[in-house]
Every structure is written in C-alpha cells, then in structure tokens.
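Page 37, continued from 36.
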C-alpha cells in the first residue's frame, strides 16, 4: 500500500511524541521530569467523576446526537452567556471529541485547496498540520518576543490575501503564555472589518488561566463580527479532562451545521457518559475553584521565571497566562557537550537535556520559532525547582 502524499506534509504531534519518549524512559527506570506535554497534573473534579460514573452505571450506551446532547449544548450556551457575556443559542454549539476535533471540523468544512489560514508564530503545534490535512495553506506570521509574541495589526494586514479564510488566535497562548489585551483585539478587529472573507478562530482553551483573571476574546470585543467568529474551547485543561476528549465550538449556525456534517462522517457524537460529566463540570463545579487553578499555575510560573532568570543565555517573554514558558536558547547553539558532541539546533539541545539531565522539553521548530525550548509547568513545585536546577547545571557545563 502506498501511503497518501498528504502524510509527507504533516508530522506526528511533537508534543505527543516527546510525551511517549518520557514514558518509555521512565518505564526503563530513569528519573525523568517532564516539562514536555501540555497536560495538567491536576485532577478531574469529583463531581464530574461521579456524574460520569453514574452515567456509565445507567448504561447510556445508545449513540448521542452528532452535535452533542441537548443538555450539554444548553449548558455550554449558558456558560458562554454567564461567564463571558456571549449570547449563543444551543443550536449554535457543536460538541466534539476534543478541541482539536472542533478545529479539524472547522478547517475541513471551510477550506478549499490553496485557501490560506493566518497563524501567529510561535503557535500550538497542531494548527498548521490540521490546515494542511484540509488542503489549506498555513501562513505563519512570526511574532518575536519583543512584540510579546503577539501579531500586530500591520502584520495581519500584510498577510491577508484574497485567499485568506481564517486568522487563528489563541489567548492565553500555548506555547508563549502571551495574552491579548482588549485594545490589541480592537486593533486586530479594525483590520478584519475591511476583509469580510476572513473569519476568526478564537481558541480559548486557557480561558481560566489568565493570571489577571480578565479573560477576553474577539467575540467579546467585536460583537459586530460575530457572524465570522468561531469561539472554541474544551475541558482538557480547566477540568483536567484531556483523556476524556471533549471540546466545543460556538459560532454562526451555517458554520456549526457544516462542521457537524464533517463530524457525522468521522466520529459521530462524543461519548455520552463524558458529555454527562461535562454537564456536571459546567453547571456544578464552582467557578471560584477555577480561579484557584489560575493561581496555582501563576505561582509555578513565578518559580520558573526566578530560576530561568538565573541561567545565563536563556531569554523569554514573561507569560501572562497558561502554563508554558517559551525560552529562547540561541546562546547554547554551537557549544559542545562534555563528550564533545556539537549542539547545532534546539532539537539537539532538547535531546541533550533529556539525556544528561532527564528533563523533557519540546524544541521550537514544531512551534514555528527557533531556536527555543517550550517548557510546560505541569509538575509540582518541588519537581519544577529540581528540573531547573538540573537544567542550569547541564546548560552551564556546555562549552
Ligand atoms: N488548543 C490549544 C492551544 C492547546 O494547547 C491544546 C492542547 O494542548 C488543544 C487546543 C487541544 O485540546 P483538546 O485536548 O481539547 O483537543
């Protein structure tokens, strides 16, 4: 069997492959600290586990509607209304098996071959590959640390062509932790108003991890553009439900219907028992507890910043949300390890840190801006401190 040409254009998710690598080394007895996967080390709230278990004990084995259980679509519409003031009808909501699938559905439903999608870089690893699978063209716009890794209105204006179909925004951001302000979103909206062919995909998955607690997205700032904004979110981070695979999209009805059509031929409705758990998450977990999550990751970020500042050669833009630091590491390239190997790329540096210090990081190439290492702060504070101590020694011994 010859494999499809499209496989040549995409890669296995680098963050997932580093996660698998870490698991294999741990199984072989190495003491590995993972700053690799973007998977919170928090627990699924008990209310959610109980609701899911009860749903399993009741059976719930029949297929769910493709678009999601009516009760869940209702709960999501309510949540969007009360939490961030966005007025969606339940019919404008699609429930999918993870935020990743929502984004996949959106691209498959809207892109023709050659259509362009503007993606500020560094970006979450999967955006460009999802666009490529849908035969679109990812247009990466490099956003350096000096601009806090945020796309500027003039950059957006010059990246837009007649083939542009989407701008993808993710705030708080993976991999940089940058957060767009109201004014910055207003300025981008002003550019978009002149280009009616361009839609916005707002990936809000780190909504509750805005360290100032002042989350804002494009639909909130520019309600006049609501007919061309798809707001996406999921329960993987906020409720630690990453393995249960549930996400949702909210947007104009025609788009939601088109995305449901794609999903109807791929996975159908999301697992019913997880949807019941998701209803409990959105309606029964106190929002105050979610604020605690933000404080936990803010504390870890502060610890990481303190340690990283003490390492000569590492620079980064201070995160304002999420749980990542995008550490630029060009100063270590072209140095040699104690055994004489040359560190040529950030990939080499990530390998070196794994081999010598037992620390998993993910190199910048997969995020569209090198040389850098993405550090995911998803382990307890003592382990985090140990990881940075080990990193400091390993980097300090390069010559
Ligand atoms: N969007 C962003 C920005 C992410 O960082 C991730 C996961 O790391 C996802 C989407 C995928 O989320 P899900 O597990 O809901 O598919």
């Amino acid at each position: 069997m010859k494999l499809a040409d499209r496989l040549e254009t995409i890669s296995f998710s680098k963050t997932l492959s580093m996660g698998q690598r870490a698991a294999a080394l741990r199984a072989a007895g190495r003491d590995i600290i993972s700053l690799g996967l973007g998977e919170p080390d928090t627990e699924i709230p008990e209310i959610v586990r109980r609701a899911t278990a009860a749903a399993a004990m009741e059976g719930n084995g029949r297929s769910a509607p493709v678009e999601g259980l009516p009760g869940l679509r209702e709960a999501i519409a309510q949540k969007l209304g009360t939490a961030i003031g966005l007025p969606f009808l339940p019919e404008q909501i699609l429930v999918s098996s993870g935020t990743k699938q929502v984004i996949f559905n959106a691209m498959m439903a809207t892109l023709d071959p050659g259509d362009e999608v503007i993606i500020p870089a560094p970006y979450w690893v999967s955006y460009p590959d999802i666009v490529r699978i849908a035969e679109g063209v990812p247009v990466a716009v490099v956003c350096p640390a000096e601009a806090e890794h945020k796309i500027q209105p003039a950059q957006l204006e010059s990246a837009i062509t007649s083939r542009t179909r989407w701008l993808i925004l993710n705030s708080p951001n993976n991999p940089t932790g940058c957060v767009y302000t109201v004014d910055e979103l207003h300025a981008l909206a002003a550019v978009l108003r002149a280009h009616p062919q361009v839609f916005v995909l707002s990936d809000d998955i780190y909504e509750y991890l805005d360290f100032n607690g002042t989350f804002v997205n494009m639909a909130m700032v520019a309600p006049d553009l609501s007919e061309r904004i798809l707001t996406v979110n999921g329960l993987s981070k906020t409720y630690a439900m990453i393995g249960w695979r549930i996400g949702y999209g909210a947007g104009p009805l025609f788009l939601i219907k088109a995305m449901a059509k794609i999903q109807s031929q791929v996975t159908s409705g999301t697992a019913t028992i997880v949807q019941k758990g998701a209803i409990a998450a959105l309606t029964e977990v106190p929002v105050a507890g979610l604020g605690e999550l933000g404080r936990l990751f803010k504390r870890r970020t502060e610890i990481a910043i303190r340690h990283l500042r003490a390492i000569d050669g590492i620079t980064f833009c201070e995160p304002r949300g999420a749980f990542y630091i995008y550490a630029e590491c060009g100063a270590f390239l072209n140095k040699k390890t104690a055994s004489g190997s040359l560190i040529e790329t950030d990939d080499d540096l990530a390998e070196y840190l794994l081999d010598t210090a037992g620390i998993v990081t993910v190199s910048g190439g997969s995020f569209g801006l090198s040389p850098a290492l993405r550090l995911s702060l998803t382990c307890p504070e003592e382990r985090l401190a140990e990881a940075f101590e080990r990193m400091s020694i390993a980097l300090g011994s390069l010559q």
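Residues 94 and 257 are 8 Å apart (CA to CA). Flag for discussion at group meeting. The pocket of pyridoxal-5'-phosphate is lined by residues 38, 98-100, 124, 170, 174, 203, 205, 234, 236, 242, 247 (CB under 6 Å).
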